[in-house]
Amino acid sequence: MAATKKKNGREHASKREAPAAPTVVKPSVAKPLPKKQAVEQAKKGKTIRQVAAIPFRKGADGGIEVMLVTSRQTQRFIVPKGWPMSGKSGRKAATIEAREEAGVVGKTLKQPAGSYSYWKRLETNFARVNVTVYLLTVSEELVNWPEARTRQRAWLKAEDAATLIDEPELATLLKTLRVPAE
């Protein structure tokens, strides 16, 4: 029968057991992040992809207004965009990017509004990026959001927003933007 020992004011039965067989612990390898994977693909000359949201609302005149945000580094106007997220659809990832970068919440439409390509500056080279764009009907603007300190946001008529965008294909998408009937 096992003897009892006091530990921290409690009695515990102690058993004499044979030492357990050593266990083999495999080192855990962190799964690469989508951005890291994308940069590795870019280094090999492959085109990489991102997802973006165009937050929109109906303006006072009944026309479409879109929200642009400034980029963190160059402060030029862009749409909220980012890398695909593991386990999330492109639409869901675009919704998350809009909340993080622009501080907006709403319903992202199922079908992409279009796509555009641009050249992304990496540390040592440039990479071609294809961006799938989703429309997000804004239902709420957050006062505080994750990137509020590093970005500014602005509501503009789609045509005016197009003139502030550097990527020609995105500018064309904004100029010709049509919101599907609900």
Strand content: 35-45%
Cα(first) to Cα(last) distance is 75 Å
Uncertain spans: 9-16, 21-32
Number of strands: 10
Average per-residue pLDDT, rounded, comes to 84
Structure class: alpha+beta
Please describe what this structure looks like:
The protein is 21% helix and 35% strand. The protein contains 4 helices and 10 strands; from the N terminus they run E-E-H-E-E-E-E-H-E-E-E-E-H-H. Helix 3 packs antiparallel against helix 4.
Gist of the model:
The protein has 182 residues and is an alpha+beta fold. The protein has helices at 34-43, 90-102, 158-164, 168-175; strands at 4-7, 10-13, 48-58, 64-70, 77-78, 81-82, 104-108, 114-121, 126-141, 153-157.
SSE inventory with pairings:
Blueprint: E1 4-7, E2 10-13, H1 34-43, E3 48-58, E4 64-70, E5 77-78, E6 81-82, H2 90-102, E7 104-108, E8 114-121, E9 126-141, E10 153-157, H3 158-164, H4 168-175
Parallel strand pairs: 3-9
Antiparallel strand pairs: 1-2, 3-4, 3-6, 4-5, 4-10, 7-9, 8-9
Helix pairs in contact: 3-4
List keywords for this structure.
globular; alpha+beta; eight-stranded mixed sheet; two-stranded antiparallel ribbon; 182 residues
